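Morning F.,

Quick status update on the modeling queue. The single chain you submitted on Monday has been processed. Sequence for confirmation:
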Amino acid sequence: MKALTEDYDDKECVEFSSVEVGRQFSERIWIYGHPEIMNQKMQGKWVFRRKEADEYNAASLTAFYFETEFESKPLDDRYARMVQYVDCLVDTTTKTYLDNAEYGYPESSDIPVDSMTMKQKQEELKKLRGTLVMGQCSRDESPIRHARKIAILAAESVSWEVFLRAHLDIMNDRFERVADASEAIRRRYTYVHELELLDINTMELILGISFRISNPSENHYYGSIGRLGRAIAEAENVEAIEKQILGMIRDPALDDFNRIIMHNLFLSYIYQDANEARQKSNIERFKE
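Structure tokens below.
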């Protein structure tokens, strides 16, 4: 994949990244100061990143060679509708946190939510959305507790668009942590069942935020493939989702990029499924 983006330090760059069968994480190479690369032909060319040895790591070289040109393939209507479902459901004009939000750890109101007036709920919600909470390690539940408070107050104050984004942040474990070895990830739930109780089509939602597209709406919500595998394992309609994903992996009408994404999503689901009999059966189906 090739994209004009920003790195972790907000510096503009052209990013080249891979998506590979059976690997959740990709190789990435960032090219700085040459945005024109986005429009250049890449067939038969190399891009590489070299790192010199330091006291912690050996020297390394990462490279991509492009056998063909980059190309985009339109999503089939049945898959495009899943992406549209996400953008209709998850308001693209809204973010979980306010644009001027700053890092901190606010104390929430001592007044129980049930005792608050509508005005108090709205004011408390605004205060919480104005603060970004960073966890200290993978075991730090502070960011999740903060997002849960936002979701609850958003629901109580009829801010549907904020509620859903905060809930999806929890489901996708989309939080910053100073050190995250993900040691505690098994103890964190996705709360997908709460969305099912709201009559949300969780299959279309999960798959819609799994697709990778080149022309998304601004603030389109992308899901974490590793975390969504866990959500599938916790969903009530898991059999229907299984059937849909396996069909997509086989479907030549779907571009190879997204077929690999779905392959990795199903692999993540198998790995995180606590139902051992179902897990064993799905491993065989997956091999086919």
